[in-house]
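Annotated sample (chain length 299).
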Amino acid sequence: MTDPVIHALSASDAHLFDALPDPLGARESHRRTRFRPDWKRVALRDGEVVARGAWWGGPDDSEPVNINWFDVAEGEEEAGAELLRSAPWQVELEINLPGGWRDKPDLRPAAEARFAAARAAGYELLVERFLYRWTPERGLPERPGRLHFSAEPDDNVFFGALRRIHSVTLDAHALKAIKKGGLDQAVQEELDFFHWCPSPREWWQIAHTPEGDLAGIHIPAHNPSGPTIGFIGVVPEQRGHSYAYDLLAECTRFLVEQGAEFVSGATDRGNFPMAASFAKAGFPVVSERVNFHLAGQAA
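Output written by the structure step:
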């Protein structure tokens, strides 16, 4: 067997990316995603495509943010690993999977082959996540009316709220950022991401109890794929009252008032309170995501 040849694509040969089968339905999950041809790479063996990866970033980014499409042909885990290892961008890897993939014998081997290739390339599991999608036929979630919502133009207010929220968190990405650079750096990275989103800063809202105490924040957003629940967070001292649902309901309704015809969302698989809020608000799980990061990145 000959060694694989790693090939960076361009507009002229971008069609090679479509040469592999798509058993996990990645094409459908990425139908709203815009990929740059020169951020796509394939592994060829004897002229046949045996692995592929698409790196992704925003329209103004000079480098990709992550890899969010990665496939390997059956038995080609090492070619997939070499595709990842040899890339000029060493960023987080996202593998999108159909819901319930573990229980589907036609899907699980394909998923595990991708995991094996990622691990061989030096990646390790960061977190598994549920991806949600609200559509109008689900009905708008009811507003409990327990919190008062208002816009807040001062980023320092959001910085302080996020600092309190992330001081006790279940979110794997937040925990990784805190471990890497401390709480303040993690909060600043979160704010930088919200500013990066192509949606108005004026949409961000804070929530108070009737007594005037801060309960949490919600950030309705648009990412490059459409309207999304950017962030839901309850400060630690207000947890236990199911306020995450109140924030989620308000965030969803806000986006619909801005013209959203669907709303996406996501949470870590182990974040049971947030998962319960999504279910109550009428957000079904439409797919799952497994996030890998390079071993030692969080050190």
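Annotation: The mean pLDDT is 94.
Annotation: The two ends are 38 Å apart (CA to CA).
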